[in-house]
From TrEMBL:
Keywords assigned: Lipoyl
Gene3D superfamilies cross-referenced by the UniProt entry: 2.40.50.100
Protein name: Glycine cleavage system H protein
GO biological process terms on file: glycine decarboxylation via glycine cleavage system; protein lipoylation
Gene assigned in the entry: gcvH
Cofactor note as given: Binds 1 lipoyl cofactor covalently.
InterPro entries (UniProt xref): Biotin_lipoyl, GCV_H, GCV_H/Fam206, GCV_H_sub, Single_hybrid_motif
Cytoplasm among keywords: no
UniProt organism field: Methylotenera versatilis (strain 301)
Length: 128
């Protein structure tokens, strides 16, 4: 299982990283996609949605089950990955390249409320 060291994670198994355009990308982790199995549908938050950290903001459905997406931080959705909406299986193939939405955080320091790769690995070790 991959846990890239250059991105941040949430307790709800989402990842985030700054994109080249200054926004932040968000997607689900390798662990989450593996747990869900074959992903068949994504309900991303609409552009303009106000994100509240820890609150549901979308949905990922697989052949096994559905799982809420929880906002990583407070902010606002500014873009949806339409390619991923049309081909949700891309998450299973490349979970850390298949971002679901981009957002602008309300706070400049996103890292203070999220997990490093090492802290996320420790979380998983506690789950496994």
């Amino acid at each position: 299982m991959q846990i890239p060291k250059t991105i941040l994670y949430s307790n709800e198994h989402l990842w985030t990283k700054a994109s080249t355009d200054g926004a932040w990308e968000a997607g689900i982790t390798d662990y989450a996609q593996d747990l869900l199995g074959d992903i068949v549908f994504i309900e991303a938050p609409a552009i303009g949605t106000k994100l509240v950290a820890g609150q549901p903001c979308g949905l990922v459905e697989s052949v096994k089950t559905g799982s809420d997406l929880h906002a990583l931080v407070n902010g606002e959705v500014i873009e949806i990955n339409q390619e991923l909406i049309n081909s949700p299986e891309l998450i299973n193939e490349k979970p850390y390249q298949a971002w679901i939405f981009k957002y602008k955080p309300s706070d400049d320091d996103v890292s203070k409320t999220l997990l490093s790769a090492e802290a996320y690995q420790a979380l998983l070790d506690g789950v496994a």
